[in-house]
Amino acid sequence: MGAYLITADGFADLCNYGEEEDMQLEVRTSSTGAHLWGKFNFGSLEGVLRSTGKTPTVAGKQIPLTWRGENTGDERQMWIGERQIGWIKFLSGGKVKGHLDGFMAEGDFTGHLFESDVRVKEVAAWKNEWRGLNQAAYNAASVSRWGKWVETPRADGPSASDTSAAGDSGEDDESDNEEMYEDDSE
């Protein structure tokens, strides 16, 4: 696990990015080790990924994942929902490769490790970002594009998580939510 410099030609084209400028992927297991979480920046496509399978114990094992993201460029598209899937594989020598697939966003990526220290605290921030990339946020973004009233975006609550038993809010998830649900009526 760690931070990787990424090459992702398919996403460079998607995001009108001619070169792989500062494309990165940071990956870490959660505090319990049950899930792999990551933050990616593939040009103007940025987002968060979460494994749906067990975390790797050996190099070369393909790990299924889901992802949520957005195009931070001019078009401001958002990718959320069940169709955002993919996989990641950690290879020997500090290399990684994977694939993300989603509505109008598909591509392979490869990379090499440049920093092995990604703090577990980063995972809490990635979880909050994951929960904020949801239907309410999508609707609010639509208003800025097309105009009309829409609900105020709210972050998703924790789902059955690597830090809790089937739907119970575990300690990690509770601390993540305290920041997220503070009074925002000002």
From TrEMBL:
Bias (Low complexity): 155-168
Region of interest: Disordered: 149-186
Name of the protein: Uncharacterized protein
Ranges of biased composition (kind: Acidic residues): 169-186
Lineage: Eukaryota, Fungi, Dikarya, Basidiomycota, Agaricomycotina
Domain of life of the native organism: Eukaryota
